[in-house]
Design a protein that fits this description.
The complex is a heterodimer of chains A (321) and B (98). Chain A is 66% helix and 2% strand. Chain A has 321 residues and is mainly α. Chain B is built from three helices and three strands. By secondary structure, chain B is an alpha+beta fold. The longest helix of chain B has 12 residues, at 35-46. The chains are: A mainly alpha (321), B alpha+beta (98). The interface between A and B is medium-sized, with 33 and 23 residues.
Chain lengths: 321, 98
């Protein structure tokens, strides 16, 4: 074990430099491991908490088709959370411990899921804008330097495309409906547009981790680059849908070849992240209750498995003479 | 160790055969109380869109792997045997089908 750290550091630096992937048992700087666990856990928690705002609409979906689609989508979010917890475990994190950290408020999740879903149009807007923003964020993460995370992201991105398209199709259907239905869509867009822009995180000059994460090739683009890309993608989609994005300063800038858009209220993001959003307490209380209500099932399954193992191995007390 | 930790389900590695004729490929891991539950969870988690026709699950603790620290020494025996590769042998271009 002589000088393994120094050798390891050189190998790690070479791996990053050559744009290869870091794999679980490779030597890595403690800061890299810590950053990866934090980012993957936060991402996993977001998927799990993200089941709630839409899950609330499963029983109220307006048709069997919409109900089946929404069920499949919410099940995907659970799956995405589990892919990510699986990736976090390759770094030595413990899944149960991560859940406890979430419930105790010691790890965060995306602030977007602290907003309420007031009408069925919200389900469509979440698919279109929230999942659209997530796709913008996640596609570059498919090339993230940590192998298990990048592989999980590839799987997730394939499925997110369904999420975005079902949302947009839902909105197109509502826009062809009654004036009340069109108003519901516009109202949902008005409420979700700005929080969606905040999903990309603080502006670059206030994002303390960005430089190191870019150097380690965990992140490939800055928050502001991705936010701009999302705005440029969304404008023609809003036009095709027939809704107005709630920003008077939003306009094409021919000189930049990009859209200009209005100032984001960062105090709102700070407030929601620090726990004072419309639904923070409700989301965590729900997750805590699900964990507590499921405890006896996990214990019973573990006890059943232990008993069957004993029977197979002939070591159960009943089998002893 | 608290009771909570004791009740935690073990970790399983999951391998999926995408279609007949292909190898099983590692796709990730999951937690389950036993092998049977691991198979069911693997189906729900990793094959929601016809990604597989067959699944293996293996307890992660039962997987033995080579150490990345010994990588060079461990794989050295194959590194210096260029004569194992077809391109090592010079054959005139005029000779067909070889």
């Amino acid at each position: 074990m002589t000088d393994l750290g120094a050798d390891g550091a050189a190998v790690f630096a070479g791996t990053i430099e050559k744009d290869q992937r870091v794999e679980p048992r490779d030597w890595m700087p403690e800061g890299y491991r810590r950053t990866m666990i934090r980012q993957i856990a936060q991402h996993a928690h977001s998927e799990i908490i993200g089941m709630q705002p839409e899950g609330e609409w499963i029983t109220r979906a307006p048709s069997l088709r919409r109900k089946a689609i929404l069920l499949a989508k919410v099940q995907d979010e659970a799956g995405h959370g589990l892919y990510l917890y699986s990736a976090a475990e390759t770094l030595g994190a413990d899944r149960g411990d991560l859940t406890r950290r979430l419930i105790e408020g010691r790890q965060k999740y995306s602030s977007i899921f602290n907003y309420p879903t007031l009408s069925f149009a919200d389900v469509g807007v979440i698919g279109w804008l929230v999942d659209g923003a997530a796709i913008c964020n996640q596609v570059p993460l498919c090339r993230s330097s940590y192998g298990p995370y990048a592989r999980a992201m590839i799987r997730i991105c394939k499925e997110e495309s369904f999420h975005q398209r079902q949302g947009y199709e839902l909105l197109m259907t509502m826009m062809r409906g009654t004036p009340e239905q069109r108003d519901m869509v516009q109202d949902a867009v008005n409420r979700w547009w700005w929080p969606s822009l905040m999903m990309f995180g603080p502006p670059d000059d206030e994002s303390p981790n960005t430089a190191q994460s870019m150097a380690w090739k965990i992140k490939r683009h800055t928050n502001d680059e991705l936010r701009q890309r999302f705005v440029d993608m969304s404008v023609p989609q809003a036009e095709a849908l027939g809704v107005t994005l709630p920003d008077a300063d939003l306009r094409w800038n021919a000189a930049r070849g990009q859209h200009d858009f209005g100032a984001i209220d960062w105090s709102e993001l700070k407030r929601v992240i620090s726990g004072d959003g419309p639904c923070n307490a409700q989301r965590i209380a729900h997750r805590r209750k699900a964990d507590e209500d499921g405890a006896w099932v996990r214990e019973a399954a573990a006890a059943h498995a232990a008993r069957r193992r004993d029977v197979v191995e002939g070591t159960s007390k009943e089998a002893q003479p | 160790m608290t009771a909570e930790i004791r009740h935690e389900w073990p970790l399983f590695e999951v391998f999926v055969r995408a279609k007949r004729g292909l190898n099983h490929v590692h796709v990730g891991s999951l937690r389950a109380a036993d092998h049977e539950m691991a198979l069911h969870h693997a189906r729900d988690l990793y094959t929601r869109r016809n990604e597989g026709v067959s699944i293996w699950v293996v307890k992660s603790d039962d997987v033995v792997s080579s150490s990345p620290d010994d990588k060079e020494a461990f794989f050295a025996p194959s590194g210096d045997k260029v004569y194992r590769h077809p391109t090592y042998y010079a054959i005139p271009d005029s000779v067909p089908h070889i």
